[in-house]
């Protein structure tokens, strides 16, 4: 029987729990894996094997005495059970000789959790081929491990945890001839040959820097910059064993001066252990469920990071559970749990355990400017847990959760006069449970949100929708500076204009930004259809005195191309987004190799599946409420495509359930309530466009601004008149008189050139009768305020 099977563990757990006698508690912790293991040297295979190994840590507790033993497991169920029983008997004989442990901390209430994380793992042959291709000409030395891992826990109290993940970890060094090296890794649950090749190429670039001649610096004060990986190593060294209650009170903490307030760091510095990232278990070796967030250093000071978990008891002579009157939660020691008690892991819901909402409510609010605190999570298992847990993270908690029901950041506090009143703990527990019910729907989303924000390097889960024709780099800069992800639309720009906009954007901000492209297939010219289209517009031409014969035909918008990428690549945009699907694989490959985060719009679940399968790192779920062009691409016939599309809050949960990549909600979201609703339905972030149209940084025309501020903005429709593809805008004269979805309009983007002279004629007269007044169905959030202020308002007050 396989050591990673649930059936095997349950049999082992039943045997261990049955051995407990009166006054005893028995437990078993299983660690098992079945992995492909490959070792490389000089980009060639040195060793290839399959590893299946497992061991069980069994423990026996009586009073304040606890003994543990480790048993290697063979997978032969009966033989392994016999070994475990023998080990328990040995531990029982040892217990009388042990001293009491005043710091022993065990759960008093059964806790349950379960996680199954399936991955898309590469075969050994695929890994070898990828390494040989990506490391050609490099001295590549490292290893690859890939396969399922199991962590499981059970005790005689009734606690059960099961944690099964499938992931990979590839770790390597690239060596220089002078024995200098660059260390890199790639870990996760979804293998990508392109992403792996990009990591190798990045390491090769760093290796080339080592070949440069060193420069001698004179003694003095210099500002030094550390990579996230280097900072993580430093923090890991400081944090190991530095935050546990036991290590502090016994004087073994590495951070005693910080703990005693003899030293402080900058108030901008924060250190957070976030258990939502990676693939480590959501429980400790003693069976506690791990909190989702543990603050270790807050505002430059030691957080005294005791593990907060009701249902735990400090097992010390004569000591009862104590209450923390400030937070309204029971305080239990973290013992020597590294870094305050939590690697990354799965969420859990302990039976009878008080809410952890108060810990979340005490977390700092969202930053309002570019000098926001740096929050770095620490720790993690090998493989994806360590890789994910090391990067910088700015955690987002929805505004209604931060505020709670008792005012900002106060919903779980205790009035000083009530701290010792009979029944206060029970009332506090009920108060926290009420708040936790509001938090439950947001907690999983918070994990998704944190991961996406970490990957994009943004402080707020707000993406500005790229809006060609009504914005330039200034709007993107304002949103990025406020902590969101600003976007620059490139579909209507020449290569020269695009280069100029990117130069201006880069000069104005160092924050992350997105560059957006259309990736449509230009249609073949259709002279008959274009003639029919001009004939439909003939009455308007006559009114305006325009000679239709003088109007040049033109494509209007160019799709993404190799030349486009050659222009954009030197600016290294952190994110690239596409509308109308994804470009051809040969065009997308260099974008992926650059490390840019690829987003694309989907209007149906089928399109979301397609985007995920073809390389999108995140999917934008575009609801029917959205302004501007619909992003559909699998069905280009409007009559059938639009019947399959739905509103944002109907589409969003279906896409979230269908794909593994992050999902961004778009369409009809214009205020903090809409953002919170989208996040509660599983969105990792939101994309907002229409709300920015009245901001001073937008280039929205006076006619367009007037329409948005009028009653006309309440009437929008999808129309093909302005470009040939369905797009939502405010209904105007030409839409009313020709009908918004006119079958005569040529295919995208050929319809644009024929109507453009009418637009110019009308706008010179101050009229928007022939202008595309793009807007979504919810214009209620449009405000003439700075874009940065609007961006921050979308997540509510901090």
From TrEMBL:
According to its UniProt entry, the protein's GO biological process terms are: proteolysis; response to toxic substance
Catalytic activity reported: 3 propionate 3-nitronate + 3 O2 + H2O = 3 3-oxopropanoate + 2 nitrate + nitrite + H2O2 + 3 H(+)
Concerning CDD domains, the annotation shows: NPD_like
Please name the InterPro entries in this protein's record: Aldolase_TIM (IPR013785), NMO (IPR004136), TldD/PmbA_sf (IPR036059)
> Which GO molecular function entries does the Swiss-Prot or TrEMBL record give?
metallopeptidase activity; nitronate monooxygenase activity; nucleotide binding
Q: Which UniProt keywords apply?
A: Detoxification, Flavoprotein, FMN, Monooxygenase, Nucleotide-binding, Oxidoreductase
Highest taxon of source: Bacteria
Specify residue ranges for compositional bias: Basic and acidic residues.
Answer: 367-387
Record flagged with keyword Acetylation? no
Q: Per the entry, which co-factors are needed?
A: FMN
- Any Pfam family matching the protein: NMO
Which residue ranges does the record annotate as region Disordered? 362-387, 401-423
UniProt lists the family membership as follows:
Belongs to the nitronate monooxygenase family. NMO class I subfamily.
Protein name as catalogued: Nitronate monooxygenase
Question: Source organism lineage?
Answer: Bacteria, Pseudomonadati, Pseudomonadota, Betaproteobacteria, Burkholderiales
